[in-house]
Amino acid sequence: MNGTKRARGVRAAVIGALGLASVTLAAVPAFAKGDVEITAPRTAHVGKAFTIKADGDDDSAGFLHQLCLQERSGKQAWHQETCSAAVEEGARVTAHGSAAHRGDLQFRAVLYGLKNKHDHHPTRLHTSTVATVHIR
Question: N or C: which end of the chain has fewer CB atoms below 10 A?
């Protein structure tokens, strides 16, 4: 008899936990998922070309996406290098660069959402981590 009561208690606890988990998951709001990845070499030599690539996507409905590469040197402000075309999903951009001086160049990719191809006020959706290229 003790075994039967114990089994029922365990079963009730498991059912209760599953019910609580389902209520908790239902209460969590749904957020758009997206990400931006950037790849760049760790080092490059003065005057030699190197390549920076970025991929970005977001499952926001109703948006076109445009991915832009930005660069800065030292403590300067970020400036835009190049942007992809506006696409419905899976934005990609590639840039080729070189440096005339030693030091660090930083790059990041920014994914924007646009209402149409001529949207003059895009919405920033995601920003990648910063990729630093050490110029030797």
Answer: N
